[in-house]
Amino acid sequence: MKRSENKIRSGFTLIEALIAMVLIGVSIAALIASNVSHTQANAHGMYTSTAEFLIEEIRAMTMPLDFVEPDEVPDTFGPDDGEVDVGDYDDLDDFDGITFSPPVDVSGNTLNDFSEYSQVVTVESVNPADFTSAVDDFDSSIVRVSVSIVMNGKQVGSTSWLITEK
Ligand SMILES: [Ca+2]
Ligand SMILES: [Ca+2]
């Protein structure tokens, strides 16, 4: 009987140790990659839900408004004479072309906790027979309000809805 066969093996060979190290390395890399992607998904979810919240504030603020400027000033599409901030806007088209940065809540209060976000609002008259096509200002009984939420220069959410004249 050869002497080597009687020898009791102890520990790993160098090759086995190297393979084990490579496998551990690959596992750690996979864990880190999965964690990074989970974190990115979480961050994306947070931006999306914040965007939805900020859009809803504008929707709730604009929904009760009429199409027509209630005061005795010439009705312009956009803010009317003497209307300089959100507290002055009293008809729907006053919000056309307005950006709230920092954003505002339904009552027009500034949301300083979300100061990296902006609400960009557009109001357009649309063709009643084809909501996808805009018509001249005031030239329809339906308007589309669009709100885009921008965070640090990047759009993180947007939506639009239609309102018919009351
Ligand atoms: Ca107005
Ligand atoms: Ca107006």
Task: Describe how the helices and strands are arranged.
Layout: H1 3-6, H2 14-62, E1 98-100, E2 117-127, E3 130-134, E4 142-151, E5 154-164
Antiparallel strand pairs: 1-2, 2-3, 2-4, 4-5
The structure holds calcium ion (2 copies).
One calcium ion binds next to loops.
Silhouette: elongated
Terminus-to-terminus distance: 103 Å
Strand content: 15-25%
The tally of beta strands, per DSSP, is 5
Order of helices and strands: HHEEEEE
User: Level of helix content?
Assistant: 25-40%
Oligomer: single chain
The pLDDT mean sits at 90
Structural class: alpha+beta
How many domains?
Answer: 1
Rg to the nearest angstrom?
A: 30 Å
Low-pLDDT residue spans? none
Biggest sheet architecture: 5 strands, antiparallel
Structure description:
The protein is an alpha+beta fold. The protein has two helices and five strands; from the N terminus they run ααβββββ. Strands 1, 2, 3, 4 and 5 form a five-stranded antiparallel sheet that branches. Helix content is 32%, strand content 24%. β2 and β3 form a beta hairpin. It is elongated, with a radius of gyration of 30 Å. The relative contact order is 0.14. It has one domain. One calcium ion binds next to loops.
Summary tags:
single chain; 166 residues; alpha+beta; 5 strands; 32% helix; binds calcium ion
Summed up:
With 166 residues, the protein is α+β, with helices and mostly antiparallel strands. It has helices spanning 3-6, 14-62; strands at residues 98-100, 117-127, 130-134, 142-151, 154-164. The protein is 32% helix and 24% strand.
